[in-house]
Amino acid sequence: MKRSLLLLVLMMESMLVTVAQRVQNFELKDANTGTQVSLEELTNKSGTVLIFTSNSCPFSKLYEDRIKDIASRFDNDFSFALINPHAGSVEETEKEMKARGFRFPYLMDGEQKVTRSLNASKLPEVLVITSGPTGQSVVYQGAIDNNPQAPGSVSQRYLENALTQIQRRSSPSPAQTRAVGCNIRPRGSRN
Fold first, then answer.
1. DSSP string, 125-177
2. How far apart are CA 32 and CA 190, in angstroms?
3. How many CB atoms lie within 10 A of CB 108?
4. CB 93 within 8 Å of CB 105
5. For the chain, what is the radius of gyration of the CA atoms?
6. Residues sharing a CB contact under 8 Å with residue 175, sequence separation 6 or more, in sequence order
7. CA terminus-to-terminus distance, the chain
8. Do residues 181 and 104 make contact, with C-beta atoms less than 8 angstroms apart?
9. Quick count: other Cβ atoms within 10 Å of Cβ 83?
């Protein structure tokens, strides 16, 4: 009985640590502009939305229009950036991103340092970061919504709800959801 209770407490604690995670500044190359972009540069608004994605993941492709729509509706209060942990050459990615029409940074994390530090494991996976008295921290991590394949059948808009709650100066609830999509492959592994 005591073991079960201890295990339950440890599991709940690890979930809380993930959501309340502090975020250190980082700098990655933007495939759209060819310049380095830091998290610090993105944090001049109510929060920053980081979306881990790739050019080849089918789930990421299914979400592209939804990401653009959410970013256009919330861009007054939030900075948006895509992060690709499977980034290839800058030239190839730059050409592809311009064709897709994203109007915010597309950051290349080929070394996966930022991906690992933020515990991202799926594509797409969202992290919403806000600033507080002790620095920046993750206030929401997980899925964009509950239906990757059928936008018309979405019943839970997790990211939109989190952003709306932050606009109203409250903490997102839920603060964490399970992202569904392609696994982020560790650097150096093959499909």
1. EEEEEEEETTEEEEEEEE-S-S-SS-GGG----HHHHHHHHHHTTS--SSSB-
2. 26
3. 21
4. no
5. 17
6. 19, 139, 140, 141, 162
7. 43
8. no
9. 26
pLDDT digits (tens, 9 = 90+) for 36-65: 999 999 988 999 999 999 988 999 999 999
Q: pTM value? A: 0.86
Block residue for tokens 């790739």: 54
| Cβ contacts of 146 within 8 Å, gap of 6 or more | 154, 155, 156, 158
User: In angstroms, rounded to a whole number, what is the distance separating the alpha carbons of residues 30 and 83?
Assistant: 9
- The answer to whether 129 touches 136, Cβ cutoff 8 Å, is yes
Nearest to 43 by CA among 118, 102, 90, 105: 105
pLDDT at 16: 40
> Which has more pLDDT, 103 or 81?
81
CA pair distance 40, 143, nearest whole angstrom = 24
- Tokens representing 33 are 């502009």
